[in-house]
Amino acid sequence: MLQFCSQILEEFPEFFIVYGNNRARYPYSNSLLVQIDKNSHSAILFDNGIGHRLIRKLKREFKIQKTYLSHWHEDHVSGCALFKKHEYYCHNLDIPPLRDLDLFIDLYGVRGTPAEKEFFPIMQFLKIEPLNDIKIIRDNDLIPIRDDLSVRVIHTPGHTAGHCSFFEPKSKIIFLADIDLSKLGPMYLCQDANVNEFEESIKKILSLDIDYAISGHNGLFTGKKIIADALKRYLNVIYERDNKVLNLLSEKIPKTTKDLIKKRIVYKNYEGEFANYLVISEDFIIQNHFDRLIQKGIIKKEDNGYILS
Ligand SMILES: [Zn+2]
Fold first, then answer.
1. Pairing of strands 12-18, 31-37
2. What is the pTM assigned to this prediction?
3. Torsion sign across C-alpha atoms 79, 84, 86, 92
4. Tally: H helices and E strands in the chain
5. SS3 17
6. What's the 300 CA to ligand 1 centre distance in angstroms?
7. Of 98, 149, 191, 305, whose CB has the highest number of CB atoms within 10 Å?
8. How confident is the model at residue 223 (pLDDT cuts 50, 70, 90)?
């Protein structure tokens, strides 16, 4: 058997976690593989950002017939380059950037900025190409595995508008993709992201009966309490960021996102090959909190920034 591909539990031998290259750190991610026929080794895959070398190995072991994409981000879809004549499924809100790569640049908010240049090498390295003919999945759709087993699509927007998780209620396995339970917390860092939706999505996941949770970048979480605690901790990061933003605002001097960047609301440092992009993504995150705190009536917008109300 493949080293990077492990059965999740014995009672449901068709479910495998597929560990992404380099411990699934960006630009790689973990996948869920479900074998639908033991004799023919037919399987379906959820995300394919494990890395090209590992995709090739996986293809030698399994006949992967379909891939469900959790969202449009490059680190979850890079394996598409290695499948020809393949069926892809994704939520309709995430299909436009998969069809038209120009939209990546717009949705990441990097067009015309120094961060734009940081994107091209990674897109080339991952061999991201436009995907045509993607089939649409919707919230609560059932993906048949065998007679008494099907995976349910759970629309969990916030990270992107069409982000989906995938849940199988009998085995109690969920594939969470970029509700990734990382220490850094939820990421709403592109134009189609939304902190309030992310908050609701985490609460939606918390309401499910889960024993095994696969994170896109953080491995496998096992046990109801461990998973619930990890989700609550993750959710709490949103509230901590609310408080950090509020602590940096005043009643008199209006402040903008630019004044709050590099105040450790999200990142602790801004180094490396994506240094420019980190600043842009932190700007998105802070703006999300400004909008949210305005809706809650805690802050207000002045001509040149935001103040406490
Ligand atoms: Zn993502």
1. antiparallel
2. 0.97
3. positive
4. 9, 15
5. strand
6. 30
7. 98
8. very high
